[in-house]
């Protein structure tokens, strides 16, 4: 898949700043790379901290921004000014469906809570079952995802994840390399015979 085929990328990111300035720098960097490559953004809808940095930078760069947020989270994660188009939905399940509908690929950076981690693993599961074969990348800033990647390695070694599904996730330590990895992404797991819709 060439870079031009990525019209929109969904970015999962933290709803807090984290303790390192490098996290904020990475959020701005990934946003600038999306703008440079004429890629629109779908994200989790909040306009605070890292989510706000990414969405504002992409929006200021002239790209389309779509935030999808469950109504119960709006008071917590949105200030008075919205960025781009905001689509309120009833719950997390609807948010995941909408983000998938409007995205060509997924990037996870600085997943900060159980909910966002669950969203990431759902798109990984979709890929494993060949329900959807959209590229999935981890932006591994300062080794943030090393433990998760080690867990996946161990799960493969212990026989709980098939070796053919081991490389569903692309990873890189910076935005430029990760987008290149996603360009070359091809599902290398074995597709299941029956696809669930």
Automatic annotation (TrEMBL):
Q: Name one GO molecular function term.
A: hydrolase activity, hydrolyzing N-glycosyl compounds
The question of whether Transmembrane is a record keyword is answered with: no
Assigned GO CC terms: cytosol; nucleus
Which InterPro entries does the UniProt record give? LOG, LOG_fam
Which UniProt keywords are listed?
A: Cytokinin biosynthesis, Hydrolase
SUPFAM superfamilies attached here?
Answer: MCP/YpsA-like (SSF102405)
Taking the record's annotation, the residue ranges forming a coiled coil are none
Q: Which domain of life is it from?
A: Eukaryota
Give the EC number: 3.2.2.n1
Q: Which reaction does it catalyse?
A: 9-ribosyl-trans-zeatin 5'-phosphate + H2O = trans-zeatin + D-ribose 5-phosphate; N(6)-(dimethylallyl)adenosine 5'-phosphate + H2O = N(6)-dimethylallyladenine + D-ribose 5-phosphate
Q: Which GO terms describe its biological process?
A: cytokinin biosynthetic process
The protein's matches in PANTHER family, at most eight in alphabetical order, are given as: CYTOKININ RIBOSIDE 5'-MONOPHOSPHATE PHOSPHORIBOHYDROLASE LOG3, LOG FAMILY PROTEIN YJL055W
Task: Quote the NCBIfam families the UniProt record gives.
Answer: Rossman fold protein, TIGR00730 family
Per the record, the similarity remark reads: Belongs to the LOG family.
**According to its UniProt entry, what is the function of this protein?**
Cytokinin-activating enzyme working in the direct activation pathway. Phosphoribohydrolase that converts inactive cytokinin nucleotides to the biologically active free-base forms.
What protein is this chain from? Cytokinin riboside 5'-monophosphate phosphoribohydrolase
Give the classification, highest ranks.
Answer: Eukaryota, Viridiplantae, Streptophyta, Embryophyta, Tracheophyta
UniProt gene name: LOC120253639
